[in-house]
């Protein structure tokens, strides 16, 4: 090899050796850095392990009726390698978990429920009952408050409501045509004394017989009598027939006679109740009025005597008591007294104060007060017989009719052929008629209350009013009629010679 070639080789070898020495030094520096990093990691891990036992252990909160969870034992120290592995393992969850943190409670998805005890069941039922009682009491309080409010404010809303409910309806105009067939029922002149009804039967009393007719005018039964002045009173099932001024009476049914009696003194008046009791008023030399009551078999059950004259006797709804009106005159002043008797006691249950009129009839209304129709005034008495109000008539009294719901009085007007109808309401607090109807189409003759209808007979027409004074129906009729009976949407008229029938839709 030449010297020039050897020189190039020595130069190349020197460069390679320099590079090897630099690589070796760089490798040694890298190893030293790795050793230092490993030492730092080991020191930090050891310090963490030493501090772990001194941390406060957290425990789960203790609940009532449950045993507290046992305290966890402190984890033993772990070396750096284990810590490094845990760190790598929990990289996704954010690092190393805290082993001192209590485990999260899992929801129980199944298992057997605890059975309630009998005491717990009773307590639950009691709580439910209390809730129902509270709800019921609250509802009652609300209803009571509403009712009280409505009652105390009735003056403001009742009149408006009555105007709506009592609005006049279209009046039914009946043709007034007399029915044919068996009608009219003819009698000898002057023989028809009176007509009436019992149930759905028409009653006709003449000077010799009491006759029963059906709605078509067919005679169904008759009873003979020999009374000089016969008077008839009817209930729903029986008819009382007596001789006014005489001493004989009899009670008949629709098919047979129930009983007959001859009393000791002359008969002034008599009445029959719906329970078949019969009241007879007589007089003698000692007493101006003697009231005797018989049961349905004719046995005496009550007797009362008075020095005052008796004007009327009216049974109550049960038939076990009656209202009696009497009158007397002292110092030229006429006065009346109303008494109510119960047949199981001798003394009157109620006795009114003196009324300055002739009390023609008295009875109890739906409100528990007492109607009294007088010859010059109309009265309402309270339960103790004290005067609640008195209304003096502005015209002459023609007729009246008393009912439980209302009372009706008809007066002759000041002008010719004028009339006035007064309607008194049992629930009204007014001291005057609740409704007044004035007409000028005829003089009033008779008035009767049938249910909630007021039937008024005039000299040439018959009219039906409701209890609010509205004209519901009307029909023309003959001026010869003196009395009438209304039932079954028909009116039966009576004059001295015959009985007629018309259809009367109300």
TrEMBL record:
Residues 1-120 are annotated as: Disordered. Residues 19-29, 39-58, 79-89 have a biased composition (Basic and acidic residues). SUPFAM superfamilies: NHL repeat. It comes from the Bacteria. Residues 1-11, 61-75, 104-115 have a biased composition (Basic residues). The chain crosses the membrane at residues 134-153. This is Uncharacterized protein. It comes from Ruminococcus albus 8.
């Amino acid at each position: 090899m030449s010297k020039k070639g050897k020189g190039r080789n020595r130069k190349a070898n020197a460069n390679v050796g320099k590079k090897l020495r630099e690589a070796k030094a760089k490798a040694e520096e890298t190893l030293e850095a790795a050793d230092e990093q490993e030492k730092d990691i080991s020191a930090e891990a050891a310090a963490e392990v030493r501090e772990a036992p001194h941390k406060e252990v957290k425990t789960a909160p203790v609940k009532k009726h449950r045993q507290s969870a046992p305290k966890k034992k402190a984890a033993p120290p772990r070396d750096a390698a284990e810590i490094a592995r845990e760190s790598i393992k929990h990289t996704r969850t954010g690092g190393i978990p805290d082993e001192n943190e209590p485990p999260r409670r899992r929801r129980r998805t199944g298992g057997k429920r605890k059975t309630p005890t009998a005491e717990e069941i009773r307590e639950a039922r009691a709580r439910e009952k209390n809730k129902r009682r509270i709800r019921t009491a609250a509802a009652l309080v609300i209803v009571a408050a509403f009712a009280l409010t409505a009652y105390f404010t009735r003056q403001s809303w009742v009149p408006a409501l009555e105007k709506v409910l009592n609005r006049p309806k279209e009046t039914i105009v009946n043709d007034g045509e007399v029915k044919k067939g068996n009608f009219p029922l003819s009698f000898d002149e002057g023989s028809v004394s009176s007509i009436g009804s019992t149930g759905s039967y028409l009653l006709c009393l003449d000077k010799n017989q009491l006759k029963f007719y059906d709605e078509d005018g067919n005679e169904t039964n008759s009873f003979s009598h020999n009374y000089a002045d016969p008077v008839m009173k009817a209930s729903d099932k029986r008819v009382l027939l007596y001789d006014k001024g005489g001493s004989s009476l009899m009670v008949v049914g629709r098919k047979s006679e129930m009983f007959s009696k001859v009393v000791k003194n002359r008969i002034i008046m008599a009445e029959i109740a719906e329970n078949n009791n019969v009241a007879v008023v007589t007089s003698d030399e000692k007493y101006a009025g003697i009231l005797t009551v018989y049961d349905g078999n004719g046995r005496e059950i009550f007797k009362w005597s008075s020095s005052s004259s008796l004007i009327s006797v009216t049974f109550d709804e049960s038939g076990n008591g009656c209202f009696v009106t009497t009158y007397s005159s002292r110092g030229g002043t006429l006065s009346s007294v109303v008494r109510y008797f119960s047949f199981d006691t001798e003394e009157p249950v109620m006795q009114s104060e003196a009324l300055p009129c002739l009390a023609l009839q008295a009875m109890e209304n739906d409100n528990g007060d007492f109607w009294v129709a007088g010859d010059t005034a109309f009265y309402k008495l309270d339960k103790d017989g004290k005067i609640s109000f008195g209304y003096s008539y502005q015209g002459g009294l023609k007729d009246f009719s008393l009912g439980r719901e209302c009372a009706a009085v008809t007066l002759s007007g000041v002008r010719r052929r004028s009339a006035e109808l007064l309607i008194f309401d049992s629930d009204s607090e007014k001291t005057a008629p609740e409704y007044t109807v004035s007409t000028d189409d005829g003089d009033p003759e008779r008035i009767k209350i049938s249910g909630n209808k007021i039937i008024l007979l005039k000299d040439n027409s018959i009219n039906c009013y409701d209890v609010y004074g509205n004209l519901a129906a009307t029909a023309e009729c003959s001026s010869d009629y003196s009395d009438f009976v209304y039932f079954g949407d028909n009116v039966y008229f009576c004059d001295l010679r015959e009985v007629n029938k018309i259809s009367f839709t109300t």
